[in-house]
Amino acid sequence: MAYRIEYENWLNHPLLTAEGVEELTAIADNEKEIEYRFGAELEFGTAGMRGLLGYGTNMMNIYTVRRATQGLAEYIKSLGEHAKNQGVVISYDTRKNSELFARESAGVLAANGINVHLFGDVHPVPMLSFAVRYMNAAAGIMITASHNPKEYNGYKVYGPDGAQMSPEATKEVVAYIEKITDFFSVQSETLKNATKGALHPLVNIVPAHVDKRYYKELSALSLSKKAVKKIGSKIKLVYTPVHGSGYVPVTHMMKKLGIKATLVEEQICKDPAFSTVQVPNPELTETLSKGIALANSIGADVVFGTDPDCDRLGVAIRDDKNEFLQLSGNQVGILLLDYVLRRLQEDGKLPQDGFVVKSFVTTGMAKAIAEDYGVKLMETPVGFKFIGEKIKESEISKRGTFLFGFEESCGYLRGTHSRDKDAVVASMLFAELVCYYTQIGVKVYDRLMEIYAKYGYVLDCNKSYAFDGLGAMDRMNKVVSAFKTITVESFGIHKVVATRDYSAGVRKTATGETEEMNIPLNNAVYYEIENGSFVCIRPSGTEPKLKVYYSIRAQKKEHAEKALTVISDAFGELLTSVQQA
Fold first, then answer.
1. SS (H, E, C) 344-378
2. Which runs of E-coded beta strand occur in 137-218?
3. Which of 285, 357, 445, 528 has the fewest CB atoms inside 10 Å of its own CB, making it the most exposed?
4. Which residue among the candidates 146, 289, 328, 427 is catalytic per the annotation?
5. Beta partners for residue 443, in sequence order
6. Entry pTM
7. Does residue 146 carry a catalytic annotation?
8. Residue 304 forms beta bridges with which residues?
9. How far is residue 408 from each of residues 181, 306, 330, 445, measured CA to CA in Å?
């Protein structure tokens, strides 16, 4: 059993920390746990790596982080001295060991003669993305597991454009990583404990003016200055950073714009255990429950929440019964998209070559809104890096003006300052949106209903199926691949008009016609259903979950709900049969 040998090698290695020795000794009689920790290596994909905290080759620890960083260092060195001098920007969130992993990464890069720009305190994903671009760095590292449970951490790598590293560059980094067979062999420089200035001759703290420039960039994206000036100090809005990195930047921008926000005090502190929530995911009503309770006590109408690395925004608003409704990521995206396009049009600033971008599993409502405002809609695979690529393509070709991008998983971006989703700018825009509609006497919920009345109702939801143990990703991919061998004519009474195989980049209609799709390949199967509805199945790239997305169009909500029941039941039966085959 190779995993048992690897376990013994780690347990008896002289460089293993005392904590590591204690942890691995404690599982000596747990064969399943040993197999999980040492039966595989933590995969480094296009989103970097993410896993459970702990010691082992398949876990997040200083040794797997050092190894990954050494692979990145080799790649940067292959680009020449200029890239080494440009250096790498490193940031981290409030998770357990995030700062430790950030410093370890900096030490490995310094040992390879590469300049490092390390943030002196927690900073969110969008500020890391911005800093990479602003400081003209060769790459960026973000230590975070986003919205995953507290037991996880992760390592995301960014390219010089500020977007997550391209598949081509990632492939080269992975090749270097795989050459390192001894996890304890990577050299790392020891950093000083200074909070300002140089921690090492090659490691410097990111200067404060970088933050100031980021805030200036966001201020320029404001769309309703008059409404904010008139209403901003009067509206009642509750915000919670859920113990994450959003606290400073989100509150800074609110204060800068003059928007009053009441904070959930017990969720301001940096708490790696996220002890006030089950999961630090602002998509979940439970995560915003304390914010909603506070909002009810003070009579606020809106609640915001951001995840640990502040790239996702969750929102709850009061409905027609004056009760709080947790909006889905799609609904927040619909409201923001409509607001951005509406305000640009009202001010005569909506460009003729404007375009918006969404992932292909994001609500079909976006198409109707974009068409109504006369802007182009582009679709990408899941992963915000693909939205970043569309921005880059337009800048290189000098064709098109990027207006807004979003994903159903609560990720939004306006502006080109960042190439990843930005919950700071999204919070700012939604707060502005509240001010704008308050000024004209419209409730946010009513505006959402107006949108549905104008374009038709779309019911968007998704369901996740958890997988565990070794080989979880392989098993999920096999399930999705099995769907490619099945011809599906309908889900109940709802006919399938076309099937898209994103792994082959081919769309096939029910009549047998095929066409190639000009889109990056990934493992997903997408069923186009009559009336503009769709169902899509894909494995998550960041957690062991199989995801199924439903987007159901109908004239009325009750009709969409009935159709969803029929379609989801039929798809569920098909999924069960595929898994049992």
1. HHHCCCCCCCEEEEEECCCCCHHHHHHHHHCCEEE
2. 139-143, 152-158, 198-200, 203-205
3. 285
4. 146
5. none
6. 0.94
7. yes
8. 239, 315
9. 39, 15, 5, 19
